[in-house]
Amino acid sequence: MSEGKRLSGGGSPLWQIRIDIDRRQYWLLALCGLVAPILAWWLVSSLDSVNKVFLPSPADVLQRVVTWATEDDLAQDVAISTWRVVAGWALSALFALPIGLYIGTYRTVQALLEPLTDFIRYMPAVAFIPLVMLWVGIDEGSKIAIIFIGTFFQMVLMVAEDVRRVPMAQIEAAQTMGATRGEIIEKVIVPSSKPALLDTLRITMGWAWTYLVVAELVAANSGLGYAILKAQRFLQTDKIFAGILMIGLIGLIIDQSFRLIHRKAFPYLAGGRR
């Protein structure tokens, strides 16, 4: 058996372990992965036994999106929800990055803060809603606070783990050359962990979107999450589907933007990434 076949496992090129595939093949498979569930949804919803109240067709949902955009100001709902998510996520990153950096760098800081962070991160964000309303009020700050609570503690631990993955050999080499603690953090730990940190920011942005509907439970009168909750009360299932799909579409665009930034910032790691 040749070396190439032995490393890849042989068989079809599409099923070789961790071997890159043609870009056209990648996007064709990605398109199939997106279209296949929609076709299945269309087929099931077209059955006479399926009530549209429980499962509207893709055409019904598309029509609802058009109506929402032309009559109910979809653009404003998208804008305000995106602002709330990005603001809550950015506030989390502002605090989580330095705290996670120090937890991952110093064992004393890890002992002091990591058990507390582990303890709080298991508390559901929705349970904090009464306290947030009491402490922050019911304006925009409360929505941002819920998203912050939902993402901050997870982000701290992920950042700390990214920092701990920096090889100790690099740190010891810098110490041997006489680098100070500050120089080691600035010139060794931070640069080495940047690719993983960007991936952590991308993943936690996805988590921030999952807390949107919870955040817009707090006295909201606009936004995609608010529209979904309002549609539930009136059994507007097509609008619920439309809101969920809009959130998924926005999330996909943001995720692909992060991936593009990662490829541009770290081209030497771009092999196998799309």
Characterise the protein shown here:
By secondary structure, this protein is an all-alpha fold. The chain has two domains: 43 residues, no CATH class; 212 residues, MetI-like (MetI-like fold, Orthogonal Bundle), CATH 1.10.3720.10. The chain has twelve helices and no strands. Helix 8 runs antiparallel to helix 9. The protein is globular. The chain starts with a helix and ends in a 9-residue tail after the last helix.
Count of discrete domains: 2
Termini separation comes to 31 Å
Based on CA atoms alone, the radius of gyration comes out at 23 Å
CATH domain class name of the largest domain: Mainly Alpha
Beta-strand percentage range: under 5%
The CATH architecture term of the largest domain is Orthogonal Bundle
CATH topology group of the largest domain:
MetI-like fold
Envelope shape:
globular
Kindly report the average pLDDT value.
Answer: 88
Number of helices: 12
Superfamily (CATH H level) name of the largest domain? MetI-like
Instruction: Report the strand count.
Output: 0
Q: Main sheet, how many strands, which sense, barrel?
A: none
- Helix-residue proportion: over 70%
Backbone structural class: mainly alpha
